[in-house]
Amino acid sequence: xxxxxxxxxxxxxxxxxxxxxxxxxxxxxxxxxxxxxxxxxxxxxxxxxxxxxxxxxxxxxxxxxxxxxxxxxxxxxxxxxxxxxxxxxxxxxxxxxxxxx
Length: 101
Hints:
- The protein is α+β, with helices and mostly antiparallel strands and 101 residues long.
- Helices cover 39% and strands 15% of the residues.
- It has helices at residues 14-18, 32-41, 55-65, 67-79; strands at residues 2-8, 21-26, 44-45.
- It has a three-stranded antiparallel beta sheet.
């Protein structure tokens, strides 16, 4: 959760400056009551936690530091649907691939 200060970031100009704020503080995983209060009060922004890097770099890091997650990732990849527009894994009752055939 990011709380903005209400002050625009003066290092930018034009349209970017109008949408760029100085971060007042960051709260990692607020409890449910605090998150609800943030929603009611407004003025807070959720950090999407997005990372931009090549998949190969991320997978290599998982292999090195979290082999359990790397293994689960590989298993999930093998079970994925390859039918365009479908998100169900192979074997899912509503998957066009049915039992994986």
